[in-house]
């Protein structure tokens, strides 16, 4: 068991170290349950999987892999799945739209600090054997969930997969968005919660009632299932706008009553309050649940030019890397989420800066009346988010 002191260090101090063997090969060093982490330079007894040596002595190099720092590099290999993936909504499938340029598929993310492990579906499922992985958030969380299902299945239907959404309490957004792989007893779920708040009808007897959006309460799905989950990936960002809250017929509440505090009525401040509130709550749960890992995915960037989503903004670029191809900053571009998880057991899944370089990879206007510069083509950028998630697990 890792000591509480280590657990509460920033995430970049807690990622897997790299182990250098005498054969000059690098291999991820897995922490064994029940053992304290070793300081830089400590010797240890280990069995190397690749057969370089068995029970030999090696020196630990505590160099950390910061997956968010790196570059997009050309990759001629085909995507991990086809556009007709059974588990993906057609609107994400740019190859099934009027788009004719698919160069956005020809790049992979390469961290500068280490070699990112190749994603292998069978390996991921074996690691997640008898585990439940849940994505909770907005439509971009749903897209990440669909990307993961396509990556794990190659886009193909299989008798190994069963629909299990109705086995879980709390609201799962849509029939079929909860699947179990029978062979490994691995469950992948998605639950909609655009602002990670608990929602409650203000007047339960009125079908047209507004909903209380409790900033200080957690979504029902998380609250009711947290003790059964093994991996939780959550996000919130795009829906923190006064107009969207109003359109959703929601009213911000705190302490069981409408928000009165002038500072908290500011939507940006309300989002910061919510992000910190749920991180603190989950950190307390993690203290007593060693089988749970929680990731807060940072904001997915939008790329509206000459306007916004509701004022005629567009994203017409189809040429990769016009915004550059490298990210070398140590700090996350999502200051709110990064600050909230700092010093907690909640981990940062930092995808903001690397995704910001990919404005050509959005759904754009293909097959749509108005440009979608928020969501991404699949296969595409969200696959990289899942590769980084897999690497950090």
TrEMBL record:
Compartment list: Membrane
One GO CC annotation: membrane
Domain Trichome birefringence-like C-terminal: residue ranges: 117-391
InterPro entries the UniProt entry points to: TBL, TBL_C, TBL_N
Record domain Trichome birefringence-like N-terminal: where: 64-115
Superkingdom, taxonomy of origin: Eukaryota
Family of this protein: Belongs to the PC-esterase family. TBL subfamily.
Stated name of the protein: Protein trichome birefringence-like 14
Organism this protein belongs to: Gossypium australe
């Amino acid at each position: 068991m890792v000591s509480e002191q280590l657990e509460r260090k920033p995430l970049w101090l807690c990622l897997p170290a790299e182990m250098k063997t005498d054969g000059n090969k690098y291999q991820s060093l897995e922490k064994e349950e029940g053992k304290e982490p070793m300081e830089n330079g400590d010797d240890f007894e280990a069995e190397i999987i690749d057969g370089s040596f068995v029970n030999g002595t090696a020196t630990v190099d505590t160099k950390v892999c910061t997956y968010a720092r790196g570059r997009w590099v050309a990759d001629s290999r085909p995507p991990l799945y086809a556009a007709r993936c059974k588990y993906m909504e057609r609107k994400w499938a740019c190859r099934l739209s009027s788009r004719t340029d698919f160069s956005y598929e020809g790049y992979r993310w390469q961290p500068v600090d280490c070699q990112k492990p190749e994603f292998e579906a069978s390996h991921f499922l074996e690691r997640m054997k008898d585990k439940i992985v849940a994505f909770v958030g907005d439509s971009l969380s749903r897209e990440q969930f669909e990307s993961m299902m396509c990556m794990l299945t190659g886009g193909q239907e299989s008798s190994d997969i069963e629909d299990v959404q109705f086995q879980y309490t709390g609201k799962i957004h849509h029939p079929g968005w909860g699947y179990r792989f029978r062979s490994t007893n691995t469950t992948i779920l998605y639950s909609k919660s655009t602002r990670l708040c608990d929602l409650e009808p203000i007047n339960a007897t009125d079908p047209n009632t507004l909903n209380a959006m409790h900033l200080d309460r957690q979504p029902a799905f998380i609250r009711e299932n947290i003790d059964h989950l093994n991996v939780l990936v959550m996000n919130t960002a795009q829906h923190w706008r006064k107009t969207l809250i109003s359109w959703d017929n929601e009213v911000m509440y705190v302490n069981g009553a409408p928000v009165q505090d002038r500072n908290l009525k500011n939507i940006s401040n309300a989002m910061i309050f919510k992000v910190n509130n749920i991180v603190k709550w989950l950190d307390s749960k993690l203290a007593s649940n060693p089988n749970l890992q929680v990731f807060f995915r940072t904001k997915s960037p939008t790329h509206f030019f000459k306007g916004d989503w509701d004022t005629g903004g567009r994203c017409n670029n189809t040429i990769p890397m016009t915004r550059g191809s490298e990210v070398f900053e140590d700090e996350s571009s999502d200051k709110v989420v990064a600050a909230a998880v700092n010093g907690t057991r909640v981990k940062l899944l930092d995808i903001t800066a690397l995704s910001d370089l990919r404005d050509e990879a959005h759904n754009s206007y293909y097959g749509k009346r108005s440009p979608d510069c928020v969501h991404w083509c699949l296969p595409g950028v969200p696959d990289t988010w899942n590769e980084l998630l897999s690497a950090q697990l």
